[in-house]
Amino acid sequence: MTKNNNFAENQIQLSSKMKKDLIFISIISVFLISFTDAMVRPSKVQMKKTEIVEEEVVETAKTQYGIPIDLFNIEKSRIKPNMSLSVLLAKFNIPNKEIHQIILKAKEVFDLRKIRVGNTYQVFKSKDSSKTVNYLVYEQNPSEYVVFDFSDSIKVKKERKLIKSKVKIGKGVIESSLWVTMLENDINPLLAIELSDIYAWTIDFFGIQKGDAFKVYYREDFVDSISLGIKQIYAAKFTHNGQDIYAIPFYQDSVLSFYDVDGKSLRKAFLKAPLKYNRIASRFSNSRLHPILKIRRPHHGVDYSAPIGTPVHAIGDGVVIKAQYSGGAGNYVKIRHNSIYTTGYMHLSKYGKGIKTGKFVKQGDIIGYVGSTGLSTGPHLDFRVWKNGININPLKLEAPPVEPIKPENFEFFNKIKDIWVEKLDNL
């Protein structure tokens, strides 16, 4: 047990962000098993049913942004085009001298150039006949806001709303698509994207079938009951073609990754597909009727039908050896990944930022966007793979995994694995 404890201590000597993620994972694990000393102990975080609530100060129902609302008439609106802070303040008859002071104060707190059209602001006016403006609150985003306080001396401060993190459980059996299944089970559909990121190297999400299923523990953040998105996947089980594929979280070399039950990384050398959530329009063939030329000829790629502008990702690390218009291929990017594999991406509407010949790209980088350039009947991506210079079927590309769990880490990994497998199986 001492060995396990020492390793646990090494596991939590991480950056503050990693520690926070590990705390969330550990809360669930510690709550369920007896070897608490082998896990990091949660601090200033408490479990309330399925809700994790960080240390907080709860405002009363009579306040908003810390301002007592009963004392004021409140006017709520949105930033209009060409409305700078000075224009906004002048709208409420604030003298130019004060506006100048306010702008100087505000510059110390946030970048005035980042005031965005459509963002909400609220003005708190006195209830007497003077209708004096006491406070102006500008919402930078769903969780951050800036308070301009004119009630005494001019003060400007930036604050954050209370963010509540909820540990949630999602599960479902797919009838049509993963996205629709999320909606049918009252799950934030963005969870589908997060799952596809984790399983992108293992499951072809264009090949999802009726009867496939998923189970997942995850964390979703909320402000004022509004979701800020899926912030963390803790563990998952995806059943595809009758095979159960687990995603077990584990820190190795200070990096949190997901592994299968054998300790092999779910991250492979290549992604399963270069884009997300669309359909295959045409498969690899040695004799396909060309939709424009009306002749039969080989089509040594896979056509993914997708809207114009859909991001196209490099399926693996490599060097761009071509990024140019190329006849029937239209705007075309070709990447050499190593001495064996090369991939091609055709008919792009435009290239990704900085993409040019000689550019090194990493797996998942956006190298272009779906288009219909060259010989094309409509928006799609023609994706091709070469192995040792010979075209191969991209759908049959087998990619080796990255480094598995190291032998010295395996004992502790198995303890983590056993927790999650049991929990996921029992959902």
What does this structure look like?
This protein is α+β, with helices and mostly antiparallel strands and 427 residues long. The chain folds into four domains: 49 residues, no CATH class; 98 residues, Nuclear Transport Factor 2, Chain: A; 95 residues, Nuclear Transport Factor 2, Chain: A (Roll); 118 residues, Distorted Sandwich (Glucose Permease (Domain IIA)), CATH 2.70.70. Helices cover 18% and strands 37% of the residues. The strands form five sheets. Strands 15, 18, 19, 20, 21, 22, 23, 24, 25 and 26 form a ten-stranded antiparallel beta sheet that branches. β16 and β17 form a beta hairpin. It is globular and about 80 Å long. The two termini are 30 Å apart. The N terminus is likely disordered.
Helix percent band = 10-25%
C-alpha Rg (nearest Å): 27 Å
- Poorly predicted regions are 1-19, 29-61
Find the count of extended strands (DSSP E, 2+ residues).
26
CATH-derived architecture of the largest domain: Distorted Sandwich
Name the overall outline: globular
CATH superfamily of the largest domain: Glucose Permease (Domain IIA)
- SSE-based structural type: alpha+beta
Distance between the termini: 30 Å
CATH topology of the largest domain, by name, is Glucose Permease (Domain IIA)
Tally of alpha and pi helices: 7
Indicate the mean pLDDT.
Answer: 80
Strand residue percentage? 35-45%
